[in-house]
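A.,

Following up on our hallway conversation. Structure tokens first:
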């Protein structure tokens, strides 16, 4: 499988990480001696199931190293446009790419075996979208100080992962709902409202299961989808706030010392 790494974000004044970035790319924040995104690239490069990578938002002069990097693309202005451009470039490089992995640049604690697990698990079926979720107990056991927010469904409390898989042909759709959903990706209640107030009502009452939630999303988008309950907290341990940055700096400093 081929992968897109999204790295176009530049925190603005007033946002939580601005004091650390000061107008530079979030992806280039130092984490235990190297850019945050380099940890992500190292995991993708060592993963046996990843063939080629397209970087979005950074240029070749960023100094990043990875033998699987096939292209650098500039930031396209929105997450959806970035994904579309990235998938387009993947198909140009690898016309046979049926599914593409979308990876955020801010999950530096991921490991190659986690990437391979996601590819193997997703490809057990032939769906259009695979969305990784991590249960609250898994996340808090691995990162008890992460202070993640969770969505309480009928059967489980979960947070979203930052590595997902999509069928490459889907990105040609011009349906505005894709823009709305991606814009609300950090807020499950906003996503539920977009999909319909019946979904929002059921969610607020905690009467919807994760499987039913996926079915509603898939029906609304006219796609097939699958929620993958990921056993790796690292897949959802992104860096959005200063305490998460410091947490992962300490965590990965331990990796450097023991390697």
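Then the amino acids I'd put at each of the 259 positions:
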């Amino acid at each position: 499988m081929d992968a897109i790494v999204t790295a176009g974000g530049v925190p603005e004044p007033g946002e939580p990480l601005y004091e650390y970035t000061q107008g530079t790319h979030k992806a280039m924040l130092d984490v235990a001696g190297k850019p945050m995104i380099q940890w992500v690239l190292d995991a993708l490069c060592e993963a046996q199931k990843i063939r080629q990578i397209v970087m979005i938002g950074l240029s070749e002069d960023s100094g990043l190293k990875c033998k699987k990097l096939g292209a650098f693309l500039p930031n396209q202005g929105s997450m959806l446009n970035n994904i579309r451009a990235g998938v387009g470039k993947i198909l140009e490089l690898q016309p046979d790419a049926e599914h593409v992995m979308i990876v955020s640049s801010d999950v530096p604690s991921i490991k190659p075996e986690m990437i391979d697990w996601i590819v193997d698990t997703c490809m057990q079926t032939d769906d259009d979208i695979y969305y990784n979720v991590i249960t609250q107990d898994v996340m808090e056991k691995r990162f008890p100080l992460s202070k993640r927010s969770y969505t309480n469904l009928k059967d489980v409390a979960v947070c979203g992962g930052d590595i997902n898989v999509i069928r490459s042909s889907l990105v040609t759709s011009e349906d505005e709902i894709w823009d709305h959903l991606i814009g609300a990706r950090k807020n499950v209640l906003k996503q539920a409202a977009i999909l319909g107030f019946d979904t929002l009502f059921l969610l607020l009452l905690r009467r919807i299961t994760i499987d039913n939630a996926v079915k509603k999303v898939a029906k609304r988008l006219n796609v097939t989808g699958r929620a993958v309950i990921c056993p790796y907290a690292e897949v959802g341990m992104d860096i959005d706030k200063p305490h998460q940055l410091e947490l992962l700096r300490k965590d990965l400093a331990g990796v450097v010392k023991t390697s």
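The first helix runs from residue 18 to 21. Curious whether your intuition agrees with the design.

B.
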